[in-house]
Amino acid sequence: MFLGIDGVGKRSAAVRLAMACNCIRHAARQRQSDGSSSDNPEEFSDYPCGQCSPCLRIAAGIHPDITLIQPEAGVIKIGEIRNLCRILSMKPFEGLKRVAILSDAHLMNPPASNALLKMLEEPPEQTLLILTARQSADLLPTIVSRCLHIRFNPVSRPALSDALIQHHGFGAEEASVVTALAGGSFSRALSMKKATWMSWRGWLITELSRLGSSPLHTILALSEKLSKNRDALSDIFEIMLSWFRDILIFTCDPTHVINQDHLEQIKEASLRYSRRDLVQIANAVKSAQAQIEARTNIRLSMDHLLLRLWQQRNMGKTGIS
Ligand SMILES: [Zn+2]
């Protein structure tokens, strides 16, 4: 069971491991160096060559002994697991290690989880089952207890920033902002590469900087607009948190501000909030984020949050206390 936040390479590592289990070049090299002629797949190397036929077909997703199960419309259903069990009940096509990758296994519904449980209790020979999930708490304890757990940490900021600049065409300033907001998730950082993302973030920051001086109907219109943008909700909350964090940090050390391209707005805002306000605001944003993740009414939670920020600003003070 590979555990970690989205976008840290769990599925890529699973595919790589499947290649390592089936790479014929490395297996041949290893047999030569061992002086052994054994065909026992347990002796196969953990480093795939990436060039032999099995490696290439696994990378292309067309190897008959590698099965990838992933959610459709946010759920893995029992039909998928039954189909997997049927495939694994047969002998491997090529006689090496068979690998089944269940991506986002926490999205199995209860019947699917129970169907998989039987397979985990009596796994077929020469078969590796890899489940990926955000955290073990999202799966049935009976499944969790039958797996070996491997934790994937978030990608460090320097590593993420270097990769974005060197391989994905990010500029240094853009990489700095995106890295700070991506929370160690590579896929999340890449999603911010879209040309519109940086301008959309600039728009949101401007809206946040105007919160207190806007009339009530503008706040409610903003809430409606943000609530409709479901796919961007996690970004919206991260940008909100980074904005208020920056206002707090600015008075101590402007060089640690995340949104370096909005320093003037941050400086102005720092004159309008007290530290206590900012801590309360950060807690309110986190609380709304948790409510929305728990699938409560998005519009209601967003209205509540923005009205609170609006009130806080209007009760605000002049100068840092
Ligand atoms: Zn290979």
Describe what you observe in this structure.
The chain has about 325 residues and is of the alpha/beta class. The protein has 2 domains: about 1-150, P-loop containing nucleotide triphosphate hydrolases (Rossmann fold); about 195-315, Zinc Finger, Delta Prime, domain 3 (Up-down Bundle). The chain has 15 helices and 5 strands. It has helices at about 10-20, 25-35, 55-60, 80-90, 110-120, 140-145, 155-165, 170-180, 185-190, 195-210, 215-230, 235-250, 265-270, 275-295, 300-315, and strands spanning about 1-5, 65-70, 100, 125-135, 150. Strands 2-3-4-1-5 form a 5-stranded parallel β-sheet, with helices on both faces. Helix 5 links the parallel strand 3 and strand 4 (about 125-135). The radius of gyration is 25 Å and the shape is elongated. The two termini are about 50 Å apart. Residues about 315-320 have low confidence and may be disordered. Bound molecules: zinc ion (ZN). The site of zinc ion has 9 residues, from helix 2 and helix 3.
Descriptive tags:
321 residues, Rossmann fold, 2 domains, 5 strands, 6% strand, binds zinc ion
Q: Specify the CATH class of the largest domain.
A: Alpha Beta
**Quick one: overall form?**
elongated
Any idea of the CATH topology of the largest domain?
Rossmann fold
Looking at the overall shape, the CATH architecture of the largest domain is 3-Layer(aba) Sandwich
With strands numbered from the N-terminus, the spatial order across the biggest sheet is: 2-3-4-1-5
Mean pLDDT: 87
Number of domains as seen in the coordinates:
2
Q: In this structure, how is the largest beta sheet organized?
A: 5 strands, parallel
Could you give me the name of the CATH homologous superfamily of the largest domain? Answer: P-loop containing nucleotide triphosphate hydrolases
Specify the oligomeric state. single chain
Uncertain stretches of 5 or more adjacent residues: 317-321
DSSP, total strands: 5
Tell me the β content. 5-15%
Structural class assignment: alpha/beta
> Count of DSSP helices?
15
Order of helices and strands: EHHHEHEHEHEHHHHHHHHH
Measured as a percent range, the helix fraction is: 55-70%
